[in-house]
């Protein structure tokens, strides 16, 4: 039986200006800090159930170190290691708890050039009394500060790697299901929205042959429950002098979006709600042609197609 | 004592394609029809209390015939007539009920070139049982069809008339209070948001020396109660193949907006919510400089500054 | 390998007054009709992807005939048949397309007394041009009429059957995962919220030893995207003279709710949004004690604990 | 010409536990503090334009000292003084700036027993850079903390005074217009919703012959822009262990409500949105009969009619 990924776990981010990044993610976005260790800050949203969904540390330049994914079982970690080595992919073993909250894991580069970590074991730290939700099924009190999203949703990766091998690997080796995709007139996949969960995407992978380095990150995304939360986010961001793109609605994924960039790391955050869930076991991926790209990206609202602002990506290697 | 205007009453609109306009205003916007008489359709929103807030009839070209304003008292109609004639302005007497629901009125041209009708007496027709709200303080059931705004909010007029005389007339003769305004580096008012009510504006008047005819209409506006209603409106419009500008938020007036154009008349409709009320009797008009125009127009969201779409106006004479 | 259920499929409902039920579900709730065959009406929401999520037909009394569940693979249907027979449960084979849109299925009674149908094959009928969404990933235009929910969410079943055998069967034979549960001081499960999907529940099963017949239905639930949609639903329902319970928020599942009853069948519908998704593969079910039942049911808002209105259930056999 | 009141100004509140009240109003409700002087804290919402809309100080028991109303002109203050004395009502002159931000005023008791202060002159203190809105037409940044309402809306007063004289005084002497009212089968006004603005009510006055002292306060109300803001408020309140009534919708005034009580003073706060504006100069007050009282109070949602919680009032003298 093939090993399986259960969910997106966390993003390990390096910032060129840690203080700015912490103000952005803690005070403006409104994430909670689980702990700080060896200069790395571990953050999560009020409805995230694991140790952290984002880590940030100081570095020379803003970039993503790796992206963590939790497997379905403990055995899946080793099974993925074996499977990847059979594919000729170098796999590193990472000691348990080296990353706080994360047990034994394996680390490797996907063909798109991004580093993924796979793990199963996790620690769930207790929450301080004054920050803990009165709800047993919720981690922190909601609405404590800033925009206050519920949980990590997905990542959007760009790559200059050859398209078909990359998407095949994601589907065949890692088990992602293609949910929606954009196809060129020549029949190449230009972008794929893929998931192991019932979300439309845990990861979007965009083919960008022209990108300066192979593996890049376009954005990470946090989920909010209601459309109006996105409008409230816009107010909060403007009051703190942020530029952003949105609000608008994607046709692809049907999600309401707002994109804003962490001034410390250059990492873009998509505030995200709406969208739909896929329960059908035989889902037929929705195909969008090149001529539908603009409509697919912007069903209505402030357009992500036309803005220079959204073309920037940060390195993810 | 000076006569006073109480409120914006209605817009009398001519459409080059009446059928298209009726589909737009009745099915998409979701206005109710009070009555049809002599080919003129009288419409209003579910929370409008008067006979109609919009009339539409077939004509050669889309344009606004006149804009109706209700006075505070019956005596104010004649008093305004006298006052206007003292200003050298030609005043026509209009027979009561010539416009269904509207009593005796006077008609005249403001310096901006727009025709205003002033009236006090109104008829309030009974509402059909199946369309009547169960609420005693509400006219029709809400949410019966389409976007379903609550009530008429304001009009936005463009003019090539000389700026200072026009704004002075609005304030000194008609009693509008300037609430916010945009001023050129030379000290000319470029746009004024004015009201007789506690809204920021019942009328916005924009100085456009370059406009092809003197008196034009940029949009009429209907109010919705909640921000999400604007997002729902965007969904409804796209499903029916409409292009639009928005959603976005004005800095001036703090309102959430979406602009869409009636394909029959070319009349633009602003779907509008948020904003603020002015209760202070000594309100100091908020001044915005030319360099702040773009910020003033678009605090965030889909920009009205950059779109050709919103530059179009229809004749209002 | 054990067969698996992928998702809740549909509810087959019998109404004592079909006309009333159709007005309720089509005009007030705002479901679309896929087809009518042999006096049975097949309905679904604008975001449902399958043939129907609700069928209604005339009968002597309002009751649920059976509840359909789609399996993960075609082979799972037969595999479940075998598994159930091994458990000593009688299994009926149902011919393909006997129920429009639904292929070969098996029918059986779960220990709670409810009849479940398991199927995999489905037909996806084309949608009329004028009702079809402009979005490729959405079935119908949203907001066409009434409350307009997105999709079927879950069912809530009551039973007088012995508690522990019932919950064990759901988990061990059918593969439902317990997500949250309510436990008596004596250690009996009083209610369980269980899912095969990442929703908190596809089915809630409530132990009611005092219930007049063994298998009953408390409600079926349709999902709306935004909290405000529930408030808009309240307005629509009152304008049409419906009594209801809500809006309120459950602590268990964190969902915003409104309960209203179809006057034809007596079937209660929960309009539902908010809640959370479970991606953790080792989710620890959240336990609520008897003393927390009221808090668990009503975190805030119009209380379902105190209302006679919500105690009514209809037969489900 | 009769003097006129322009608007509700502020409530002067005494708390039995100042610290609790400050936590409630500053951190939970989210009001901003303009200044603290002589132990009195002056607060306002982010969209209030005047010095303060609420003052709180320590005292032996929670009660309202007086309610401030701003007049339309400076001359109106003296003119009201004269008018009141002609009615045989004792009028006190209050020195300018004795209450910070408030100029010369007069103080008197209305027949209902409540003390009103009338003033025109105000001071508008500058706002700290880091709390000031980037919007020129808004006082503070919105959404800085807690529930974050926009502005003071209205007060709801209870009295055991004889009904008809009380309502007559409010209308004839103070110039309030009756907008909606509840009438007993014997023809006595039981409650009146009255305004000098275009709101349905700046003050509601409820006749309660059984009340222990003559003049009492049921609630003060702050306005929020969107319905969802009320639901977010409910979440915030529960997370901080507050009991409350709502959300629900009044038929009278059409407003969405949530009632929560300051644990320091016992002063109830209504969080309020929706409702409608009255622009018609000849508005006919909407009459509700005794049998419609429950429907009038609770159109839907958590009922204010049935809850002991909302029967409590505090003294207002």
Provide a descriptive summary of the structure in words.
4 copies of one chain form a homotetramer. Chain A is of the alpha+beta class and about 325 residues long. Chain A has 5 helices and 19 strands. In chain A, the strands form 2 sheets. In chain A, strands 9, 10, 11, 12, 13, 14, 15, 16, 17, 18 and 19 form an 11-stranded mixed beta sheet that branches. Chain A has an 8-stranded mixed beta sheet with strand order 2-3-4-1-5-8-7-6, covered by helices on one side. The first copy, chain A, is globular and about 55 Å long. The two termini of chain A are about 30 Å apart. The model of chain A has no long low-confidence stretch (mean pLDDT about 95). Chains A and C meet through β17 of A and β17 of C.
